[in-house]
């Protein structure tokens, strides 16, 4: 079971689909990810869970808060550059949602306790 819900879960499904495309074509994985790609996907899930913008976040590409470490940020960029264009054929709805989300503007300051993790801990 995923920690994420709502829009964050959809974003995680999008990055997961891109990761599967990337891993299959670069590391020879069929329907499962290699350990390196799985570790990166787990890292991405944690970052989404702790995003200070929570459900109101736009695309990470334009975010003023840099929550990815430099190495993982570069790896995710590679995955998205490769998997993004190929998403239109395999997962058109996720791809279109992702493209629309890239146009969304970030609020100037993240709201207090808006992260998915903070909301879980308040319950």
UniProtKB/TrEMBL annotation:
Name assigned to this protein: Nitrous oxide-stimulated promoter family protein
Top-level lineage group: Bacteria
Species the sequence originates in: Shewanella yunxiaonensis
Disordered: annotated span: 101-123
